[in-house]
Design a protein that fits this description.
mainly beta; 3-stranded antiparallel β-sheet; two-stranded antiparallel sheet; elongated
Length: 110
């Protein structure tokens, strides 16, 4: 985005023989193609690429995000939750995983 009040726009570079090809006003949107010291290569919304002063441009501020529409609340189903503790026989059931060796480090091999 152009931050300067008016900044010259050069189609082929600031050293071209005929001067600026146009002037960009404050707030003009553009796409940064290559940032360099002094002048940067940009592309205008119209698709024309050229050069503007690096000091005259800055990233555009983020657009505010739209709030999503509120969801309709559905009545929550009432689930029966048992207040009784789970029997110990159910808690200690094996998961079917292989047992790990008692020594976690493998033996030294040649």
């Amino acid at each position: 985005m152009v931050t300067a009040l008016h900044t010259p726009f050069y189609r082929y570079g600031p050293a071209q023989g005929v001067g600026a090809d146009g002037v960009l006003d404050n707030g003009a949107h553009l796409t940064l193609l290559y940032k360099s010291f002094g002048y940067s290569r940009v592309m205008l919304d119209s698709g024309i690429s050229g050069y503007v002063s690096t000091d005259a441009i800055a990233p555009a501020p983020d657009e505010p995000k739209k709030k999503p529409a509120p969801l309709e609340s559905k009545p929550k189903s009432k689930r029966h939750v048992s207040e009784e503790p789970m029997p110990a026989s159910q808690m200690e059931q094996p998961l079917g995983l292989p047992e790990l060796p008692s020594d976690p480090l493998p033996g030294f091999r040649y």
